């Protein structure tokens, strides 16, 4: 890609923004050298790395890349045998620390099952030099100062030095406290000259202190004297300082020598960390501008959904769908210069440059972008004063260069093609240039205000028209790109809204040719139809989304139902097993007891013992639970037709046949739900004949069953037995409600009846009678 095109499309501004997300000078350096690639595999790899970086940001928020330094100069000096200073050693040690933490960070992510193949491979290249890192950590701090822990000798020297300095200061402070000090000293302070502690003594009193004069004031009235009493101590201090310096030089030389043995590993680690910084910076920038990773292709196909220009205010920028390369290879955006056309060109060009540089782009998911060998752009007023070229000449110079180099893998962006000359000639020239580009198979987006190019979009199969919407009410563009609809002139409408006399407007309308007027009318009609179609599409989309949600909810409920069903069956089986096991144990015990009684002889067995054992054996038998069994459909001599009532055997639900899907399935309406059901799961329900009046009789005889049962005066146990039989007979007789007369009395029988009804599975509800019905002496039961 030419640097001129990158600058024209403002790719340099994108790189400048990207630099802010780098954590080190090395990351910034990598960003500065970033340029679009035309190699599909390289772009795909770069996009995959950015996507993995984005995954790291989503999961962890950041990566431990801070503390990375550019140490190329230090490594070069080590290679030629030079020694490093403390700060340079610290920076290399910091890189070693970042190498270790980054490797551990990536290993932790991979261990947790996060798929990061490219970053994992990059992290595998990092060499951990833990011992060397620890040596540097113990030796220097972030300012490059050597620590006492660098060596025992250095610690000992510094301790001695500290003690000596303390003695010097103590001696000098005692001189400051002398009663004559205020008279003999210019100031009662200890200061340093030539790295030796001295006192500011007045000229006339220098003999009193003796020692060495190291400096004097500008006036000569004050002499900075090292008193004789501290000369020896200061000499000791200087000797210790010299030893400290020698030890520091020795330590730095030793660490430098050790680093020199690992120059290649440190150099490679630094390179890998710079790559990490670059990738993470791209991911962080992508997140900041709400970008996604596009799908790539080499066939010139572009499908950018809700594309936004990344340099415009995200709160105000209008997103547009840009589709190109399948049904048509060129878009001609026509219409007056009302704003938005050039932004569309720049958005497409800039997003293509970003994608080919491995950057995510501000579009919606599932967007597709092509990889081009070259992007050509002729945008803006490029009048050249130096070359004495007019605007038209400047544009034509660029266009000539583009035509020479374009091919089928070129993206060409023409802004106001053919402008700057006679309209008729300019329009003809624009059409010829577009035809030439189309013959080469290039992908083209061009803007123009020539009306002749509106028809061009309809006459060429591989070309489509487009326009930028203009709001007549607000007299401003909406910046919405309308693909398929050419732009129309708004001059008359705008003039009318601004107050121009209607007579003048009508006269102007009469002056334009009929063909142009008809074209504007056609465009206006197309805009109205498009707006209506978009509205209907949105409504249909909302309905479809609602139906999809309803289907998902229904499928979820069905899954839940079957899961619960399986759990209930499992629980029931477990309970049944426990009941059977208990019954077997009880039966074994009872049989054992009966055998014991048998051995004792018939004479020794009491009647009540046999009755009791028989009763317990009966109670030990597990109660059977009736289970709904799905039967095969009854063979009915009836051919299923639409409107038939059927039973869905697997659901035990009634439904109505709607229409036949195929030989084996029907669409069935079940309440509010329409479902496909197999024929083998359907049972025809014949229409019921009118019911004949039936006479309800007691199944044991011809006496009819009454709607009430009188239990007054009956013993408690007998009353409950009669009530049990009566409920069965009432159910067979078809009664929905019965009355049980038990009287008030002590309340024992009433309580027994209440408990019985409460536990009976065929009793829906019950209540005491009203005052007119008999009050608490009667219970009304509603049967299922």
Helix and strand topology:
Elements: H1 3-8, H2 11-19, H3 25-32, H4 40-60, H5 72-79, H6 86-111, H7 117-124, H8 130-139, H9 152-176, H10 181-184, E1 191-193, E2 196-202, H11 206-209, E3 212-216, E4 222-226, H12 228-260, H13 263-288, E5 295-297, E6 302-307, E7 320-324, E8 330-334, H14 341-356, E9 368-370, E10 374-378, H15 391-405, E11 410-414, H16 423-439, E12 443-448, H17 452-459, E13 463-471, E14 476-483, H18 491-497, H19 502-511, H20 514-600, H21 607-620, E15 645-648, E16 653-660, E17 665-670, E18 673-678, E19 682-684, E20 708-710, H22 716-733, E21 737-741, H23 748-759, E22 763-768, E23 778-783
Parallel strand pairs: 5-9, 8-12, 8-13, 10-11, 11-12, 20-21
Antiparallel strand pairs: 1-2, 2-4, 3-4, 6-7, 13-14, 15-16, 15-19, 16-17, 17-18, 21-23, 22-23
Helix pairs in contact: 2-3, 3-13, 4-13, 6-7, 6-8, 6-13, 8-12, 9-12, 20-21, 22-23
CATH superfamily placement of the largest domain: P-loop containing nucleotide triphosphate hydrolases
Number of domains: 6
Number of helices: 23
CATH class of the largest domain, anyone? Alpha Beta
> Termini, distance in Å?
84 Å
Helix content: 40-55%
Describe this structure in words.
It is flat and about 145 Å long. It has a six-stranded mixed beta sheet, sandwiched between helices. It folds into six domains: 3-129 and 262-288, MutS, DNA mismatch repair protein, Chain A, domain 3 (Orthogonal Bundle); 150-254, MutS, DNA mismatch repair protein, Chain A, domain 3 (Orthogonal Bundle); 295-489, 3-Layer(aba) Sandwich (Rossmann fold), CATH 3.40.50; 532-620; 628-689, SH3 type barrels; 708-783, Ribosomal Protein S8, Chain: A, domain 1, CATH 3.30.1370. The longest helix is centred in the C-terminal third of the chain and has 87 residues, at 514-600. The protein has 784 residues and is of the alpha/beta class. Strand 11, helix 16 and strand 12 (443-448) form a beta-alpha-beta unit.
